[in-house]
Structures are given as structure tokens and as C-alpha cells.
Task: structure prediction
Amino acid sequence: MRKQSFIQGTLILLAAGIINRMLGFIPRIALPRIIGAEGVGLYQLAYPFFIVLVTVITGGLPLAIAKMVAEAEGENRPEKSRQILRTGLTLSVGLGIFFTIVALVSASWVSNVILTDHRVYYTFIAMIPMIGIVAVSAIYRGYFQGRQNMIPSALSSVFESIVRIFFMLWFSWLLLPKGIAFAAAGAMLGVTVGEIGGMLAILWQYYVITKKDKKTTPIEQQTVEKEVIHSGSDDVKSTSPILRRLLGVSIPVTASRLVGSFSYLLESIITVRSLALAGIATAAATAQYGSLQGMVIPLLLLPGALTSSLAVSLVPSLSEAAARKDLPTIHKRMHQALRLALVTGAPFAVLMYVLAVPLCNLLYGNPDTAPMLKLMAPFALFIYVQAPLQAALQAMDRPGRALINTLIGAIVKIILIVILASQPEYGIYGAIIAIIVNSVLVTLLHGYSVVSLISLSLRITDTIKTLCAMIIMGAGVRYVYISIPIAEAQWIQFLFASAIGMALYFGLSLLAGLISLRDLDRLPFIKRWL
Result:
């Protein structure tokens, strides 16, 4: 099986992430036109329960599988990798079956009591088959990531998106004559079919790659592997040590993600109530919070496609290096990840700050959200750097440390929301300040933990160079947008100023050594040109 380098794996996942985000705009635009806002509301009411159940079942298992498989591959023990895969599948499928039964039994109660809208019942039922499907797909993705082959994960995720979009829109249109409740259930059923497509795609790739591995593996090595598997060796034949290790790695990661999910839920409730205490009407408070979470935050997280790809690639890469006790490689990978996250996220933060008004106006037709975006944009860099730092802690067997850091940040955020958002002079900006403090605090805590753990020396010069490039780029973008009009259409002027700014930033990064020709050489088409 072909194994990619750290940078290649990141680029493959990045390409898949960008494609999936572009495809994701299709149902967001088309679905409301088919089933209306009320139908979309019924669909959205059921989906958070699916996210919670999947977090419980697979929250930390794929990462644990990736980490353990990477260690086994680093020791050149493919038979142990397969044993880890089987153990992970058994655990995940068992949990999937259990929670599928729980969801079926509680569907009526959830629809009528918790959600207080019985029409959600059909959407909830359509969602339930996904639980077991995602449980299987997630384990195989973790397995391939552990072997540092990101192609199966990327291809299956793109295939899943294409199938999901088609069937989501088709089923909702097909069931619309039966009523909005059935149309929303059809949309959820389309998502289920997409997950089935993604699972079949990754299973097919596993079959093909395994078959190819057997052909390329010498007969003598295959014989040795069979003997090891059937020899009664405690660390391979017995699943108990593997199961204990899987649980030891996955439970803290799952808990950390659940902390994030529940803090987000609590944040939404407390923010609206705090705004009410500040004298803001309920409808206005809901609208302000909707602008923040539905418009501003998604924009800030758009460059996260790269940081999430970095985080996924970083775990197996660091785990393999840690298994060899190769500290120089660990330092090298961390410096690469932090530099890429910082350098690639910086220009987007500048554009969101300088061009906040035209950006919000063009995307949402609502320039009133621009002040929120402008306030948060400079601190977006902390969000982009946070993902690889957290992945490093998980890869280095410190998921508990990441959990504590996340919990501390969540507690501080909730307290600040209560204190600030309830004050009339702050209002929604009190919640924004709390979110900013949370991002900065958690990132600094993660950074301190990583530096202490592996004695990492931070390259402060990279940060200074990046900040200087950002300031120069920001001045250039502002000047071009205001002083060099090339068209009356706002979107043309916006694109022109953004392109000039990006080119200026790219040139400055090359001159400052933040980006090198070697980095560009890793990109497929640019490599040929260079």
C-alpha cells in the first residue's frame, strides 16, 4: 500500500475538504427551495441528536485506531494493525447496535417530549440507520490514516458527499406531496444513503488494497505473519491489551469532544438568556446570536479545512515517530504543522478584518454582521493553530491534558458570557469577547502543554514575520479596494482587492522564508512547472 508523507497526506485531505465544502453549498441553497424553512427546521431538529450519538460511539476511536496502527506499522507489524482494526470494529459495531436500539425505543419520546413537535418523529427514524454505518466507516478511516494513506478517506468522503446531495434532494422532492414532515424525513434518508455509499467506498478500497498487499508481500513474510497470529502471543492473539489501550486513548478524546458539544449547547442557552437580562427582546437576542453562530463563526472557520487536515495527518505521523523515540522528527513535524497553520490562515484573517463589510454584504446581504466579524478576525489565528496542537497532545498520549485545557476554556467562556452579555453596554459583544478569550486561552494552554511535553522550541521569528506580512497585506488591500476602483460592481472590486492582497502576501512570505520553493514543489501541478 502506498504511504504518503506528512505534507502529501495533508494536501490530499485538504483537497477533499475543499471539495466537500464546495459541494456542501448545494443542499444549503437547494433544500430550502424544495421543503421550505419549516421543513429545514424539522430536519435540523433531529440532526443534533445524531451528532451526539456519533460522538459517543466514534468520538475518539478513529484517532485511537490511527495512533495505534501507526505505532504498529512503525514497528513493521502489519498483523498487529489488522488485530487493532478487528478489535476497533467489534467495539464500534457493538456500541452502534446498542445506541441504534436506544434511539428506536426513545424516538417517540424524544419527538414529543424533548422536541415538542411530533412531526420530527419521521426524520428521527430516518436518521437511526446512520448510527451503525458511521460506526463502521469511522474505524476504517482511522485504520487508513494510521497507515498514512489518506486517499481512501478522501475518496470515500467525496463520494459520500456526492451521493448524499443527490438522494437528499431527490427523496425530499419525491416525498413532498405527502407533507413537510415526510419531505424532511426524505432529506435525512438521503443523508443515510450517502453514508451507505461512503461506507461501501471505503470497504471496497480496503478490499483492493489488502489484495494488493498480499500480492506484494513475500511468501516467507506471509508465513511468519500467520504463525505470529496463531502462536498465542499475548500482545496479538489476546484482544484485551489492545482493547484497554483503545479505551485508554479514545475515552479522554471522546470526553473532550463531548465537553465541546455540551459547552456549545450551554453557550446558546445562556447567551440568549443573558441578552434578555440586558434588556434585549427575545426575538432580537435570537437574531443576534443567529448572526454570530450562523454567519460570522462559519466564515472564521472556513480556512479550518487546512488545519483539520493537518490535525488528521499529524496524529499518525507523530505516533510513528514517538514509537521510534525519534524526537527530531517530532520537532520537525510540529514546526511544519504550526508554520503551515499560521502562514495559510493569516491572509484570510486579514481579508475578514479589512473587507468585513463588503464580505458580509456579498455573502449574506447583511453588512450589520461586519462589526462582529471585524472584532473576531484578528484572533482567528489562535483557532487555526489550536487544531494541530490538540492533535499533538492526543498523538503523544496526553488526551487527558487536552480535555482539561478544553474544560478550563469552556468554564471561563460560560462565566464571561454570564457576566458580560447580561450588561446592556456589551450585549452580544460580551458573548464575542467570551468566545475570543476561550480561543486564546485554550490555544495557549495546549501550546504550553506541547512545549513542556516534548521540549519544543518555538520559532518566534516565524510569528513576527507573519504579523509583518499581515500588516503590509492589510494596508495594501485597503488601499486597492478604496483608491483603485476598477468596476462599479462590489463583488468585482472585492475579488480584485483580495487577489492583489493574496499576491502581495505570497510574495512577502517567499521573501521572508515563510514559504519556500521546496514547499511549492510538493504541490502536484506546481512541481512539474518548477
Q: What stands out?
A: The mean pLDDT is 78. The chain has 22 helices and no strands. The CA atoms of residues 396 and 527 lie 33 Å apart. The two ends are 28 Å apart (CA to CA).
